[in-house]
Each structure stands twice: as C-alpha cells, then as structure tokens.
C-alpha cells in the first residue's frame, strides 16, 4: 500500500490533486480543505489511503495523518464507503468526528451529505468504543462553536422559525462568532438575517 506521496503538485481539480512522483502523475482524491492548502507547481507531502476495488485503484490524499486515521476508521462502520468517509472528514475535523461520536451527537453527523438519522446512530453505535478521545486543543475550539451554534439555533426555533431557516441563519452569522462568541449578539444578527430573507 502507498502510505504517503511526496512530489510536485502538477494539477488541481475540484475534488482531486495530481502529484508528480518520479515522472508519474498520481491523482489523489482530496477534501476541499486539503486542496485549499495545495498550490500548482509547489512541492507537497500528503498521507494517503489506497482503496482497492474490483474495477479501480483509488488514492485518497489527506492534510495530515489524523485525518487519514479517521477516514480509515469510519469506513469500518457498516454502510460507510470511501466516498462517504471522505465527506465526513470534509465536513467535520477529526476531533469534530470524535466529539460527535463520543457525545452521541446525531445532529452533527447528519450535517454530512449522505448520512441520515439512522446512519448516524449506527456509526455512533459501532464506533463509540473505538474512536478515541479528541486529541488536541482543536477539541475545545470545536466544542465552543458547537455550543453557541446550538444556543442560537434553539433560540430561533423557540421564536417560531423552522429548523431549516434557523440552520441557514446560524450559518449566515458564523463569520461573526470569533474566538469568544457572544450568543445574544449572534442571535440578534441571525434575526436580522432572517428578516432580510
């Protein structure tokens, strides 16, 4: 198996990067976050996971080893293939995945396209004992935004807005949250965004 790829980035597409290694261009399927760190013509080292199927060999590239480890672990849950696993690490950070599974947070997992309520519950059930604890300071950083998001969302729903509109409003004000989010001012900003819509 190919554990990592090091070489010059020859091309970037919406969902992949071509890295030249020894005169051969290897296409790596990557998340938007990983692709954003790469520049055509620059040198890159990407941890990889090779998925072998009857009709294909596909290389997935990652920003770091932690993202790769979570990608490989979530595929051990039934019903999770490489494309869905990649969507999980694209939407949630590795510590975000660990936190969601450890805290039975079905709602966070269902934000990933392709995961419904039952799928999220199955992933939590099958991986809870194996996912481990959040590894770094990103756990605290990921926890704080989740807290303000939930509070603003609940406030909007309590005021009579439906969950879908509340989600859109929370996303609209996410840029204003900063390091120490003030829930009251964010709720006011979310209400302003809903009144404009």
Automatic annotation (TrEMBL):
Q: Where in the cell is it found?
A: Cytoplasm
Top-level taxon in the UniProt lineage: Bacteria
What keywords are assigned to this protein?
Answer: Cytoplasm, DNA damage, DNA recombination, DNA repair, DNA-binding
A single GO CC term, please?
Holliday junction resolvase complex
| Subcellular location, principal | cytoplasm
Helix-hairpin-helix DNA-binding motif class domain segment(s): 72-91, 107-126
> What remark about domains does the record contain?
Has three domains with a flexible linker between the domains II and III and assumes an 'L' shape. Domain III is highly mobile and contacts RuvB.
Its name, as the record gives it, is: Holliday junction branch migration complex subunit RuvA
Q: Which organism is it from?
A: Nocardioides albidus
């Amino acid at each position: 198996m190919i554990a990592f790829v090091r070489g010059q980035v020859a091309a970037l597409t919406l969902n992949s990067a071509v890295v030249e290694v020894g005169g051969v261009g290897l296409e790596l399927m990557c998340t938007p976050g990983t692709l954003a760190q790469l520049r055509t013509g620059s040198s890159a080292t990407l941890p990889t996971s090779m998925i072998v199927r009857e009709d294909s060999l596909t290389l997935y590239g990652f920003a770091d080893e932690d993202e790769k480890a979570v990608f490989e672990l979530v595929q051990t849950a039934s019903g999770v293939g490489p494309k869905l696993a990649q969507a999980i690490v694209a939407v949630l950070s590795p510590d975000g995945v660990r936190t969601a599974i450890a805290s039975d947070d079905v709602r966070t997992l269902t934000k990933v396209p392709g995961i419904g309520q039952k799928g999220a519950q199955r992933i939590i059930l099958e991986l809870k004992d194996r996912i481990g604890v959040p590894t770094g300071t990103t756990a605290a950083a990921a926890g704080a935004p989740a807290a303000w998001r939930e509070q603003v969302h609940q406030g909007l729903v309590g005021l009579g807005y439906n969950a879908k509109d509340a989600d859109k409003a929370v996303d609209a004000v996410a840029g204003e949250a900063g390091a120490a989010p003030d829930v009251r001012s964010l709720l006011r900003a979310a209400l302003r965004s809903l009144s404009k819509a």
